[in-house]
Design a protein that fits this description.
By secondary structure, this protein is mainly beta. The chain is built from one helix and 19 strands. β11 and β12 form a beta hairpin.
Length: 229
């Protein structure tokens, strides 16, 4: 009978399991700060008001609530208060800008063109992107996002492919593609080939900037997909 060395076999098992994911060295999880509108407004009825909202994400992708600077480039058409409340004055199209200067002296901003017309029209356009691998394993495919009945629906396209031998592969929504800290865990990846759908309740289409794929047991990044307008 062979004399098996149990600690050695346990070590070999751990090595094989760990080799299922390729570790990326994240020296710095800093990202560029971002300020973006989270409201979707195409047209506002004349002589009415509408509350705009925006989200500021700091240099690690974490949401903060600083005092923002709101400006209307066409105040004769549309005015805006320093809380983001717009008032429709006369027919036309106006550009609303929201901005913020960080402690590092970096100014981040976003703009929205709004038409003043006969009725208020709120449009929520679909967003999407492309999944890419950041490891030696296959991970690719396109995806779209849309809001349906207050839920965020992520539709991964038929061209999606992922290596099925990744232990503990999970998918997340995040604003920092370098880490799962502050990310929203969607769940384990169960489909590795072809179209599939995720439905996440209570999440807005503008709340996150990236899909993120991580080997959860070892906290190792496998790939990501930036969410574009």
């Amino acid at each position: 009978m062979k004399n098996y060395n149990f600690p050695f076999l346990l070590f070999l098992f751990a090595v094989v399991l760990f080799s299922g994911c390729i570790k990326d060295d994240f020296i710095d999880d800093r990202v560029d700060p971002v300020l973006r509108f989270t409201s979707s407004l195409d047209t506002i009825e004349i002589d009415t008001e509408f509350q705009l909202e925006a989200m500021y994400l700091n240099n690690v992708g974490r949401e903060e609530m600083p005092d923002l600077d709101w400006t209307s480039l066409n105040p004769d058409i549309l005015t805006v208060t320093q809380t983001g409340l717009v008032s429709a004055i006369m027919s036309g199209t106006a550009t609303i800008t929201v901005s913020f200067e960080t402690e590092e002296g970096i100014t981040v901003s976003d703009q929205m063109d709004i038409t003043v017309g006969e009725e208020t029209v709120i449009t929520i356009e679909a967003k999407g992107g492309t999944i890419r691998t950041t490891s030696s394993y296959t991970l690719e495919g396109d995806f779209t996002l849309e809001e349906v009945d207050g839920n965020l629906v992520i539709k991964v396209a038929e061209n999606y492919r992922a290596s099925s031998n990744l232990p503990g592969l999970f998918i997340y929504l995040t604003n920092n593609p370098a880490t799962t800290a502050d990310a929203l865990e969607i769940g384990p990846v169960q489909t590795f080939n072809g179209a599939h759908t995720y439905e996440i309740p209570g999440v807005g289409i503008s709340d996150f900037q990236f899909l993120l794929y991580f080997c959860k047991p070892f906290n190792i990044k496998v790939g990501d997909g930036e969410i574009n307008d």
